[in-house]
Design a protein that fits this description.
98 residues, alpha+beta, 4-stranded antiparallel sheet, globular
């Protein structure tokens, strides 16, 4: 359930970035939220920044930070369901639950 909620939030963040002209992609790649392979990477993670980065000619980390910025304004973060959202050096977006 929470995995689906995070998926929807990432899709909304991408749509907002697309509408703001920050991500000029149409259509957007499919968002996948996976269980993190290790607790040090949080509870869930996504490689969406790695998929989008080459299309924008930007680094995955830079794209990940753009997405993280859009996500930090989401209700899930404001309700404290997510403790933090972290962008790893490689560009993976890691989600830590409270």
């Amino acid at each position: 359930m929470l995995r689906n909620t995070i998926h929807d939030l990432v899709e909304k963040a991408l749509t907002h970035l697309q509408q703001d002209g920050i991500l000029a992609l149409n259509p957007l790649p499919e968002v996948r939220i996976e269980y993190a392979p290790s607790p040090k990477f949080g509870h869930f993670s996504s490689n969406i920044a790695l998929l989008v980065a080459p299309l924008l000619k930007k680094s995955p980390r830079e794209v990940g930070e753009l997405i993280r910025g859009a996500l930090t304004r989401s209700d899930l973060v404001q309700e404290k369901t997510l403790q933090k959202i972290e962008v790893a050096e490689a560009g993976f977006i890691n989600f830590f639950l409270t």
